[in-house]
Structures
1.
Amino acid sequence: MHQIDNGIKENFFRWDGRLNRLRFLKRLLALFGISIVLYILMGILVLLSGGAAMQPNENTFTGIYGFFTLLCIPITVSSYMLMIRRLHDIGLSGFFILLAFIPIVSLGFLLYVLFKMGTEGDNAYGADPLGTVASAAPTAPAAPENPYARATYADTPTDIAPPKDPQS
């Protein structure tokens, strides 16, 4: 059984565990949307600060590009963490993420990770993300079964009378 991810850290900044295709695609689209918004904001700031031509003596453009580059670092780290978890679902080691740094191979690698079905059942990297969901709160253990208790008392003798009262 797998646990449901709760929060930004558990969804985007974990490398352990597994991630199925649908969740991987949804989270990649969320990161893509955030990065598009950042690039639009950067373009608006560049246009508002005096134009698109960068002049060597102006530090404004350098500051804008540096600021947005710093904002893109968590998005990049998060996308690699998602890819590692997706590789774990396929049954591969996270070291295969290094294939993403080879220019032509990276496109085929991304398509493979997107369309390859994950391993069924548990594997070395965790429980099946498509399996039954485990509750986040630990459940109390069941009460131990009483070995002397019986469901029915049909086998008990019925011809035994209670003891007589000695004072009567």
Note: The chain has a mean pLDDT of 77.
2.
Amino acid sequence: MKTCIIYHSYSGVTRGIAEKISAACGGDLVEVAPKDNYSTLSAYSLGCLRARKEACDPISPDSIDVSSYDLIVIGTPVWAWKATPAINGAIAALIGCEGKTAVIFATCGSSAKDTLPIIKSKLEQKGVRITGEVVLSKSEISKNEKINDLITAVRTATGSG
């Protein structure tokens, strides 16, 4: 089963988790980035405001064609209890996702609150079926248990779990 791991990582934490998934399960990594990068100050002001509004940033790459993949994994940091505007942009930029299966995850300081339910809803509107959802808080990121839960969810979705 061919897997595409799509993620946005502001500080490198979400990238590290995506790389662990790829190392354990295989899959192509697609890092999305806002075309207009955030500074530290603008990430916590403008970025969080845009996240709260569920806004989509223009991203690079412009579109993400997942038609040749069986499984989509999407990971985001949590900004103001929501997905980053770059991940919102990535979901909007998905091509060929109808009928696909996905596992979603979020990295956060303490609470992901509305993040995964919103991502799940947006993906379901595009015809994607969610089979796994994992939140990794700051204290859980350094522990293997939650990362192993995420890897298990990906393996289960690919039929190799």
Note: The mean pLDDT is 95.
3.
Amino acid sequence: MLVAVYAIFALSATARASVQIATKFSQAPLAYLLSALAGLVYIVATVGLASTRPWARPVAWGAVAFELVGVLVVGTLTVLDTGDFPDDTVWSAYGRGYGFIPLVLPLVGLWWLHRTRGRAR
């Protein structure tokens, strides 16, 4: 289930950012580039969480931790200074536009990675 949610966010964030960058990049370049970064992070997290290769868990840990830092930093910046963000990112206001799932998802991901450490998948 966790991998499926990450895959959905990877697809939706990447598609949204691609359309925004292709059609209206000049309106909010920082926001659209941050959405593209979020999409890339979700892709990396999905691959890391889904794979059983030796490199997968460290990659998943890194991607999910980066995601949490990203949503906290971008969320805080978008709440404090809306002028730099004329359009929303995936992580704006802690993922408000996505039902706060971007805030909860890395917490669940880190919990799952911690809970399943040392186990074969």
Note: The radius of gyration is 15 Å.
